[in-house]
Every structure is written in C-alpha cells, then in structure tokens.
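Morning run. Coffee first, then this:
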Amino acid sequence: MLLAIIYFLLILTGIVVVHELGHYIFSRLFGVRVLEFAIGMGPKLWSKKGKNTTFRINAFPIGGYVRPAGEDLDTIDSSIPESEQIQNKPAWQRFIIYFAGPAFSLLLGFLILSLVAVIWGFQEVKIDKVEPGSPAAVSGMMPGDRIVSVNGKTLIDNTRLSEAVAKGERIDLVVNREGKEIEIAIIPELLPQEAFFVIGGVSGEPGDILSSINGGTFNGDYVGYGSVLSPESSIKLGFEDGSTLSGTLLTYSPAEERYAMGIYYANFKPQLAIDHGQFREGDILLSVNGMKTETSYDLTTMSQLLALKPDELLIQFTGKEISFAEFGFPDEFVVSVEREGQLINMTVSKNEMIALVEEAGAFAQGSSYWYPDTALEAVGLGVQWANNLLIALVKVVGSLFTGGANINEFTGPIGLVTIVDQAVSLGLRIVLYLAGFISLNLGVINLIPFPALDGGRMLLALIEMITRRRLDPKIEGLINVIGFMVLMGFMIYITFIDIGRWL
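And here it is:
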C-alpha cells in the first residue's frame, strides 16, 4: 500500500502541476505577474527566485498551485503595478487564464492515452460466451471472435458497440475469427425487464414462471416494485405451478427492458496469473463447489455467490422466467483445477477464495492487445479513445446534477489510492491509463461553473463580458471562499464514504 500511496502522490502532483502550468503560461502571456509557482503543499523545502516568480517545492507532494498577483485582495502588494494584477485584466483575458488550467488537463489526458495507444495498442473486444438462440447465435457469432468494427468504424472499446445495441437497429459488424475477417449483420432483440433478488432464510422452492409477489399478481414490471420492496422486509414469490418461495429480502435490483445481442465479453480467463495460497500460477479453474468456471461470465457469477451466506439465495429473472437460482457457497468447498495437465481437487475455505478473487491481477486477461497498422493511426485512435472517455465523464458529471447519479458512487483520495494500488499490480499500461483518466477527470470537474473552481471564475468573467459590468471583486472573492468551503465539505464527505468502503 505504501508503494500505491507514492504512485498516487506522484500521479496527482504531476497532473496538477500540468494544470497549473496552463494558468501560469497564459497569466504571463497576458502580463499578469505570478508571485509563486509551487509543486506540493505545506512548508517550503526548496525555492528559487526568478525575475518575478518564486518557484518552490513544498514538503507535501499533493498537487501544486500558482499565485497570480491580485487574486487575493487581502494580501495585495502595493509595489506591484495594477496592470500586472489579475483582477485588473479584461474579462476575456481572465476567462482564458482560468480556462487554460482545465484545457491543459484535457490535453495531458489526450496525450497520455495516445501514448498508451502507440506503445501497447488496444485491448481486444473479444466474445467469451454466446447465449443459445440469441441474435448473436442466429447470426453466427462464436466464442473467441474479436469484434473489429461496428457499422464501418474501428472498435476501440465496447462503448461504441453498446451504444449501437441500445438503439435496437441493424448493426453491421466485422469480426476476426482465427485470422480471417468475417462480416456479420445482426439486429438486437428487446429483452423484458430483469431483476436480481437475494433472499435469506428461504423456505419453499422456486418454480419456473413468476406469477405473484407478496400476494399481488405480477405483470412483469420489476421496476414498478422498486419503491415497494425494501431490504430486510419479508417477501413471498408465487409461481404458476403453485410453488411458493418466501424469506427475507436482502437485495433487490430491477432493470428496465433493453436491447441485447446475447454475448458476454472475455474479460478474464479461468486461469491463475499469480501464486495465492493453495493455488499456483497457471492453474486452470475447472469448478468451484460443483459450479463450472469455463468463462468470464462464470467467474462473475462465482464472485456473486461468494459474497452470500449458505442460506442466502440469488435469483435472476428475465421477464417472468427464472434464468438463474443458486444459494451462496458454504464456508468450505471443493475447487477443481487443472495443473500441468493433471486434475487436482482442493478443499478451500470461502475466505481464501474471496481473497483470491479480490486480488488484482489474480486471473489472466481474457483477451490480448491488437495494434494499428501505423503509429500515426494509433495516435488517431488514441485521440478517439480519449474523446470517448471525455464524453462519458461529461455525462457522468452532468447526471450528478440531473439526479441520474448518486453522490455516494463517487470516490475521493482514499478510494483513488486503492484503485492505484490495483493498477500498479497490473502494470505500467494500466497506471498510465489511470493517469490519463484522472487528468481528463480533473479537466472536466474544473469546468463545472461552481464557485472556487475554474469554471466558476470563468462564469463570472463570462457574465461580465455579456453585461459589461464587473462584480465587486470583494463579493467575487467571498463567493469563491464560500464555494471552497463547500468543496472541502464535499471532499470530507467523500473521504468518509471511502473509509467506509475500505473498512
């Protein structure tokens, strides 16, 4: 964890310094005197006085900052000419100075991701499992196929494919199968609503077709029950064959109807990539507690069952039909692996298996990387990749204000340290990808028109340009101070959420 903290601080400091460099360069271009350019926070470790700017390295490697003259009205140095103070610059110049920080963060994110694309290429979008009878199966798609393009556009990640599927219209795919490219046309099908139930203290047996919930006739609207069914409440499910199942509802996760192709991606292989307890690198996981583990989808299901107690039942419904129903694993069970061509059965505790699943990089990647024909093409695709991430980030941040996202789903410094710890164990490519992602995120967050953020200062400058009236600098400063206090409160709240997750 110490190494993860060091990596996190280095990544964060590097990204913030580039952000502040944007402010610094454009401040100087417009004749604003920058009093300090600091790397890190806290007490000074080293400094060098330039013509107008003191460059310093501080004790705590957490980000950095620039201090333009005139920004803090309480500490204005009267010896500095008014023409070199940021508060006296035209609104359009202040707008550009504040915009330069987020712009440099976004540019850094694009640069890093393009570099990752040039060095490593892109992760394959590979099929691991095809549902029998699904549109994918009917069209001839097979496990092992790598999806090369969607509607004539090269597939960098599965985002473009997911967006195409969600429309429910015909999709023209090119897949690579054993070195040959094959064209496939597919029309997604509309799946009915789905739901996951986790029920404890189960009595009775499930049937095949759900007919009632808590005595009320069920018409297939799981989402409608979202406001009725609450955790720790009693629940009774009735089935068309007359069987019933009752117990305590622990988890209820409904999903709207959606279009689907009937494929699962090859995220991981059931092959160990590390030594862990009784397991050895190279072991091929065959079954866990009698459940076969042949695909990435099986590994995901196994992980869900590991999180449940032996008397807790996980049920998945697609429409009114049960598509999956299994109890949680016992405290100890048999795991079958293939090791150097031999079958080995091991008795493993649930805690040992959970620790294995939670270990970053425990399982081998289910797909490898593919490389564009030229470095120039890799750069172009890297830019597209970064742009896709940027659009996704903007949507996520926007959904926070429209009610589409829960603030508890966000993460702060402690959560990022945990993510960096996992990234470090997975290699330099993932670390650089994470750095690019964080830089894009910093740029997007700072463009939010909220006081104390660059976006808030940009908004005030924009209002001034439109109205041709300047808000009293002291009132502007007070607004930013209040905004800063709100942001600090938000960060403290997120930190407590992170600590709760960690515990």
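The radius of gyration is 28 Å. Good start to the day.
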